[in-house]
Amino acid sequence: MSDFSSHPGLAPTRPGTNLPEQSVSDLARSVKRTVEDAFGYVRVRGEISQPKRHTSGHLYLRLKDDAAVIEAVCWKGTVARLSIRPEEGMEVVCTGKLTTYPGRSQYQLVIDSMELAGEGALLKMLEERKKRLAAEGLFDAERKKPLPFLPRVIGVVTSPTGAVIRDILHRLADRFPRPVLLWPVAVQGEGAAAQVARAIQGFNRLEPGGPVPRPDLLIVARGGGSLEDLMAFNEEIVVRAAAESRIPLISAVGHETDTTLIDFASDRRAPTPTAAAEMAVPVRADLLDQVLDDERRLHRAMTRALDQRRTLVQGLARGLGDPQSLLNGLSQRLDDRGERLTLSMRAGIERNQGAVRQLGLKLRHPRDVLRLAVTRLDGAARALRTGLDGALRLSDGRYHRIADRLSDRALRRSLADGTARLADLPPRLDRAHLAGLTAKADRLAQLGRLLESVSHRGVLSRGFALVTDADGQPVTRAADLMDGQRVAIAFQDGDRPAVIGAPTPSAKPARSRKQAEIPPQGRLF
Amino acid sequence: MTDQTLPPDIAALSFEDALAELERIVRQLEEGKAKLDDAIQSYERGTWLKRHCEAKLREAQAKVDRITIAADGTIGAEPARLD
Q: What's any GO biological process attached to this entry (chain A) (predicted)?
């Protein structure tokens, strides 16, 4: 606090008071000095009101709470470095100094830095934004594109200065050097978000085969920093640009523990820029090893395949046996067979020769056969003649003997005998015949008598009668007769016709009585 | 290496695909079940694939370009000078 009374150069202007008189400017200057000395570095929390960007680039605003208002200004150079974009109603904590503006009797806060009031508020805002973008589907898993195994060109969106791009290039060089296209952007402060978004869109707009090669992988990277420092990567335009990128995109913002909204929209999230480079490319040396190993295996497998087949062929060849020995054996068999053939041929010939000789010996000359046949023929002719002569002589003798015996004497004698016997026969025949006849007559008479004795005729003679029907058949039962039936009654001396039935007026009672007695008589038979 | 005789279908393969096919051929041959003629064909193709893979691996280059934007908005690139 200045002591006005001790201020030099001030003189009393009125009697009775020793207060020196001073100019407005002096006073204003004095106030300014006092304020700046007393409030050279302050942190003040308040709500932003009426932020206004002047064409000069400076930002004017008010900080207020429920009871007071302080004018504030943020010079152009500082605005660019602010981690947040001041907006109406934003609760912020500003750091800076108090000064006065003598021209308008104002005091104001000159802001050096500005941050959101409390992490909670910022995080709450981010959480709401995240939910909103997620609801649009920007973070959906099916939007994620696979990274190329070995990108031809890698596009990197980051600050051209600083450690991030160097870390990425170093790691790429270690693993697999690739052509890199750097799209330089501011990674914090005003305009950073817009630049990052434009860079992502710009890479996507590059035509394949154009003068600038289109990357097939993007890395959006930034080094570590406070939550406010990373705010550009939470901005909606950046998140949307990342989500809409057709080129696969790796986000690598801040350190491992930092998560920004671009990480949800990117295809892969790397915890650090270095890790992004590791995701981007495989290790060349490993691949080279793998290729060389494959080559060795290729050779080995092929060699083994050939060896196996060679061994197999050799084994089979052994299985086939030595053709020479095979031939030798066969040749020997052939020799043996040949020899046996010769021997057997010779033996056969000899055997046949013997047989021929034998047969030849048995074979007589046709002349001999003829001579023999002639001899036999002569013999036979002689025997024939002799036999014929003998037979003739024999027959001649027999003829004479039979002729001698042939005379009619015997015939005559037989004739005389026959004649005598013929004369003798008739008387004998008569006698015999007569005797037989008498005997037969006697026998006949005898039989006649016998017959008479057994005939019914005899019964008839004793007074019985025989009734016969129209056919002459005897009637033996009264039941066989019907009234009016005609019958014949045989008596001893002859037959009489009769009619069966009750006596008619014309009939005589005696007759009917006699007829009625017949059936009982019949029972006697 | 005679790249001009590299079969065009192999030359068109990406490194990844070429390596995958090479591995497949190696496994097949190692199984040793293929007919000899097929095995020889596979072997030849495997050799080409290996050459192709090697060539792809040799393409490694550390060129770093920096995007420039002309006043009319056209995008160009120039060698980046970092550090």
A: DNA catabolic process
Smallest Cβ–Cβ distance between B23 and the set A284, A294, A308 belongs to A294
Q: How far apart are CA A99 and CA A72, in angstroms?
A: 10
CA–CA gap between residue A267 and residue A276 (Å, rounded): 12
From chain A, the residues in CB contact with B39 under 8 A are 302, 305
Cβ–Cβ of A211/B39 closer than 8 Å? no
Domain with CATH 2.40.50.140 in chain A: 25-117
Fold of A25-117: OB fold (Dihydrolipoamide Acetyltransferase, E2P) (2.40.50)
Q: Place A201 in a pLDDT band, splitting at 50, 70 and 90.
A: very high
Return the higher-pLDDT residue of A267 and B56. A267
**Class of CATH domain B8-77:** mainly alpha
| For residues A149-168, average pLDDT | 92
ipTM: 0.81
Q: Which residues of A touch B25 (CB under 8 A)?
A: 298
Domain ranges of chain B: 8-77
Q: How near does any CA of chain B get to the CA of A4, in Å? A: 57
pTM summary value:
0.51
Please give the CATH topology (third level) of the domain spanning A138-282: Rossmann fold (3.40.50)
Contacts of residue A160 in chain B, CB cutoff 8 Å? 66, 80, 82
pLDDT band at A10 (very low <50, low <70, confident <90, very high): low
By C-alpha distance, which of A52, A38, A44 is closest to A94?
A44
